[in-house]
Amino acid sequence: MSTDVPWRDDAVALFPGQGSIASGAGRAWTASPHWSLIAEISEVTGTDVAHLLLDASDEDVIRTDHAQLATFALSLVGYHDLLELGWRPRYHLGHSLGEFSALTAAGVLTLADGARLIAVRGAAMAEAARATAGMMVALLGGDEAARALLQDRPGVYVANVNGSGQLVVSGETAALDLLLGDARDLGFKRATRLPVGGAFHSPLMATAQEALDAQLARTPWHPSDAVVVANVDGQVHPAADWPGLLSRQLTSPIEFVAATTALPDAVTASVEMPPGAVLTGLTRRIRPFATQVALTEPAELRALA
After folding, report:
1. I need a surface site. Which of 21, 46, 107, 241 has the fewest CB within 10 A?
2. Mind listing the pLDDT tens digit of every residue in the chain (305 residues)?
3. Where among 173, 193, 213 does a domain terminate?
4. Is 247 an active-site residue?
5. At what angle do helices 242-251 and 98-106 cross, to 10 degrees?
6. Which domain holds residue 180?
């Protein structure tokens, strides 16, 4: 990673979660001078990441373990292309697996260690999802009273706090099937089942904890002049705190609103790494930035040149 590029104290780099990936997501990026990162990540993890990004079917690439690794890899390609333009955001914010991408971009993790963590995390979460019938549901338009009613429903857990009236819940399939039918009565305008492989960021992921914690414990963590805002509490932490934070993140809600509003007022630009634009939309509703660019394809870099 280029370290001679000066920090931009007015910018935040956003790193998406696995819900942004789709078949062929990497095709537009093969001409990037940093596409070679894909081969490095493939070698470290023993997975053909280029195949996932170029040729895999939608069904294959959205599989939990594949989606996490493919998203991580493509986000890092986009980030290095951003550095080539002379943009080096001081602030970094990821969503779920995007937090690992953010820490890697910030230099708290090396590329190899970040990739190893993602490989272990994705495999462990996929195994936990196979062991328990769970899913996730997006709830839109509810107020605090509607959210409070969720606490009384067994098998339902708040997983993502993505904005005012935008919650994602995880839980047992039977419990969320009932919630899909009751959501309007609780005060939500819409409830939608999400196309993900399990009940992430909930106690149903607890069986993945041992494998992730073991990999976190053997991973070196490096101090950085970059700032990474944590998902679980919207705070900034030293490098030594990150193993515990990432462990908590596995079974705790993503507090994306708190993390976004923790950014200083001086941050006036956001750049979202590939493959998606979900976080650009979320931050626009939480706290708009004067400049917002989502690198859904390399051509979007022109807006920053």
Report:
1. 46
2. 456 789 999 999 999 999 899 999 999 999 999 999 999 999 999 999 999 999 999 999 999 999 999 999 999 999 999 999 999 999 999 999 999 999 999 999 999 999 999 999 999 999 999 999 899 999 999 999 999 999 989 999 999 999 988 999 999 999 999 999 999 999 999 999 998 889 999 999 999 999 999 999 999 999 999 999 999 999 999 999 999 999 999 999 999 999 999 999 999 999 999 998 999 999 999 998 999 999 999 999 999 98
3. 193
4. no
5. 170
6. 133-193
1 found inside a domain? no
Do 159 and 228 sit in the same domain of this protein? Answer: no
Tell whether 3 is covered by a domain: no
Could you say which of 20, 201, 202, 270 is catalytic? 201
Angle at 124 between CA 119 and CA 127, to 5 degrees: 125
Looking at the structure, do residues 153 and 234 belong to the same domain, yes or no?
A: no
Helix axes 98-106, 64-84, angle to 10 degrees: 30
Report the domain count for the chain. 2
Q: Are 111 and 76 in contact (CB under 8 A)?
A: yes
Six token digits for residue 246: 């990432």
Residue 106 sits in the same domain as residue 122: yes
Tell me, what CATH number does 148's domain have?
3.30.70.250
In this structure, the answer to whether residues 211 and 269 fall within a common structural domain is: yes
| 99 and 37 within one domain | yes
Q: Specify whether 96 is catalytic.
A: yes
Radius of gyration over alpha carbons of the chain, in Å? 18
Residues 147, 88: Cα–Cα separation, whole Å: 38
The residue from 32, 75, 96, 252 that is catalytic is 96
